[in-house]
Amino acid sequence: MDPGSKEFRRDFVRSLVGADLESGKHARIVTRFPPEPNGYLHVGHAKSICLNFGIALETGGQCNMRFDDTNPEKESDEYVRSILEDVRWLGFEWGGGPYYASDYFETIFAAACELVEKGLAYVDEQTADEIRAARGTLTEAGSGSKWRERPASESLIRLDEMRAGALPDGACVLRARIDMASPNINLRDPSLLRIRRATHHRTGDQWCVYPMYDFAHPISDALEGITHSICTLEFEDHRPLYDWVVANVTLPSRPRQIEFARLELTHTILSKRKLLELVKEGHVAGWDDPRMPTLAGMRRRGVPPEALRDFCERVGVAKANSVVDMALLEHCVRENLNLEAPRYMGVLRPLKVVIENYPEDGEEWLPARNNPEDPSAGTREVPFARELWIERDDFRIEPGKKFWRLAVGREVRLRWAYFITCTRVEVDPATGEPVLVRCTYDPSTRGGDSPDGRKVKATLHWVSVRHAGTAEVRLYDRLFSDMSPGDDWRERLNADSLEVLQDCPVEPALAQIEKGARVQLERVGYFCVDARDSRVGRPALNRIVGLKGAATQT
RNA sequence: UGGGGUGUGGCCAAAUUGGUAAGGCACCUGACUCUGAAUCAGGGGAUUGUAGGUUCGAGUCCUACCACCCCAGCCA
Question: What's the fold here for domain A348-467?
Answer without folding.
Answer: Ribosomal Protein L25; Chain P (2.40.240)
